[in-house]
Amino acid sequence: MKAGLLGALRAVLTVATLSAAVSFVAVPSAQAQLRTLPDFTDLVEQVGPSVVNIRTTEKLAIQSTQGGPGEEEMLDLFRRFGLPVPNLPKQAPRKAQPQQPPQEEEQTKGIGSGFILSSEGLIMTNAHVVDGADEVLVTLTDKREFKAKIIGEDKRSDVALLKIDAVGLPAVKVGDVSKLRVGEWVMAIGSPFGLDNSVTAGIVSAKLRDTGDYLPFIQTDVVINPGNSGGPLINMRGEVVGINSQIYSRSGGYMGISFAIPMDEAVRVSDQLRASGRVSRGRIGVQIDQVSKEVADSIGMGRAQGALVRNVEAGSPAEKGGVEAGDIITKFDGKPIEKSSDLPRMVGGTKPGTKSTITVFRRGASRELTVLIAEIEADKPIAHAVGKEAKPKASAASQAFGLNVADLSEAQKKELGIKGGVRVEAATDAAARAGLREGDVILQVGNVEVSGVKDFEALLTKADKSKALSVLFRRGEWTQYAILKVAK
pLDDT digits over 386-396, tens only? Predict the structure, then answer.
């Protein structure tokens, strides 16, 4: 009995010992999976010498006076500050003094950051750092100061390229932005509030953040404040992946959200600035909007993607290429357009004079069109909306959708640049809920073009009133979709 108990006890102890041994062996394996916090010291030593402080000045005209302020000037000061005006004794009139020419006084306009792009003295920074400056001063980490020449600045991308007379400078290494991952550690070096070579760190919060027409920004939580603008955003390999450019703030200071210009976009801009001092961008002459899921479902696209063409500029490359208002551009040169903001970036990055292919979704089918890219320019005015006509009586089909429409005259069609359509005379019930109003011009009903009232009435009569009906309409210079739903 005792021998049996003793054997069982030995067995339990053996199992417990083995379990403890297994646990003991497993601990180092678990610890090996833990990630330590990054050490930025080597990166600062590597990239720090390539970061510069930028100070801009402007010249202000001042009017010099002789002999200090006179009686009238003193009295004016009392009046401006709301003080009682003293009774000064009358003095003999002063002799007219010859007016002195205005003098110029140099005043600091702003402080920012930048970084050395090439060893021959090319400096990259933000356009808003040097905008309007009469003089740009660049200070290196070794305290040498240079007057910089502005090679070019591009306000649309907020990128500027400077040149200083120096050689053998420590240039940065440019990183591959496509390899940047959300959650990755990054570091910024700059001069917040004029404090040179301040280092902050954080992670990439998001990529392709839409805050501008031509740039998909990198969002980070790296601390950025006024003065950091133009400084580099650096990955853990010591490569510059962005230019710190903006912050989201309600106070003017850092609130946890910062934005950087992707370095691949910045390099493309700087290459053009270096070559010609300006940036040339492509345009096709369309005004666009997002494609909602409701619109995509109603016209048979299946998925909300692309850019909805709300207007085509007269005489533009898009018009010559056959693009129509109401088209949804889904691809540009074979590259898919997921959201409307993708299109201006793709077109803007295309060299003017290039023939490009545009894929559009129109009336339930896709088709390819060819356009000749033009250079971006100021938008041209668009013809105004049509005038009023006598209101006809609405049919039963139109009344069911809350619409009363009328034919357009040939003069009105010519003025609007359209082949057909009907003008909304009144919109109530389903039409009003969908956002239609008097003066709108309906161009399509359920992916079918409308030539006039007769076509319009026939399409509404055939429409299934239990389902949503898509209507493409024109309002002034804009073209968009409305979804009509008859109340049950």
Answer: 333 445 566 77
